[in-house]
């Protein structure tokens, strides 16, 4: 969802200029502010070298976000995805990304995710924290499932939030260029430029399926029941709701 939204934002910013968006891979175009990797320039250094206005990436929960982002009234786009698909996607991502801990077996990872012992913390704390803050700050809260269901509508919403006006032709062009199948083939968006020892696409491609409901192929009946109980308990205190299938 993050990579998808980054590509959409870049194209809106460029007025739909596809060639401009192919100027560099995603991780070069968008500094990942908390990313530090030995012998590689850090996301923060990369951001500091860029002229304003900059488009940055973060996975931080709101309580760890640098206070200046909110103090300076930055525009923030947040993308939330239902936790079952999020778990499956994250599991396969951790299998192929050697910069992250080995997720172990699916059964082990299921427990790890439920306990919130994953990078960037508990899914529940993350989505609820940003949801609670969205009315106090300039935060556009998007849902992956809505983006899949009606990409044109959500891209239009994003453009308005960014203060850009797109005609229908440009909008359709962005919808096409940011569709899963097109992005999967785009070396500037599919992370294929990252060395194999860091991201091994033969284990699992970075752009794997991009669907809603793939969790059904992974969750056992018992796991699903257990997850639903946990979800009901942890989401009881919020107005935030998710769709687990389209």
TrEMBL record:
Residues forming coiled coils: none
Keywords of the record: Cytoplasm, Transferase
Record-linked InterPro entries: P-loop_NTPase, Sulfotransferase_dom
Gene Ontology CC annotations of this record: cytoplasm
Residues covered by the Sulfotransferase domain: 1-238
Main location: cytoplasm
Location(s) in or outside the cell: Cytoplasm
UniProt enzyme class: transferase
EC numbers on record: 2.8.2.-
GO MF terms held by the record: sulfotransferase activity
Highest taxon above the source species: Eukaryota
Signal peptide feature range: none
Classification via PANTHER family: SULFOTRANSFERASE SULT
UniProt similarity note: Belongs to the sulfotransferase 1 family.
The protein's name in its UniProt record: Sulfotransferase
Lineage: Eukaryota, Metazoa, Chordata, Craniata, Vertebrata
């Amino acid at each position: 969802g993050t990579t998808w939204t980054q590509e959409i934002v870049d194209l809106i910013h460029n007025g739909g200029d596809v060639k401009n968006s192919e100027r560099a891979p995603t991780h070069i175009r968008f500094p990942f502010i908390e990313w530090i990797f030995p012998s590689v320039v850090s996301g923060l250094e990369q951001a500091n070298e860029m002229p304003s206005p900059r488009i940055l990436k973060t996975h931080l929960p709101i309580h760890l976000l640098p206070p200046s982002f909110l103090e300076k009234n930055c525009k923030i786009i947040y993308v939330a995805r239902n936790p079952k698909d999020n778990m499956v996607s994250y599991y396969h991502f951790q299998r192929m990304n050697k910069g992250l801990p080995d997720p172990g077996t699916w059964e082990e990872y299921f427990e790890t995710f439920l306990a919130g012992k994953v990078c960037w913390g508990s899914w529940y704390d993350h989505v609820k924290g940003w949801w609670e803050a969205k009315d106090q700050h300039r935060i556009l809260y998007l849902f992956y499932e809505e983006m899949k269901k009606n990409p044109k509508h959500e891209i239009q919403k994003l453009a308005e939030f960014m203060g850009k006006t797109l005609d229908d032709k440009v909008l359709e062009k962005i919808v096409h260029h940011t569709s899963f199948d097109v992005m999967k083939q785009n070396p500037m968006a599919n992370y294929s430029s990252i060395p194999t020892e860091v991201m091994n696409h033969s284990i699992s491609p970075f752009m794997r399926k991009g669907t809603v409901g793939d969790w059904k192929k992974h969750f056992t009946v018992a796991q699903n029941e257990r997850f639903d109980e946990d979800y009901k308990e942890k989401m009881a205190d919020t107005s935030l709701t998710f769709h687990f299938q389209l």
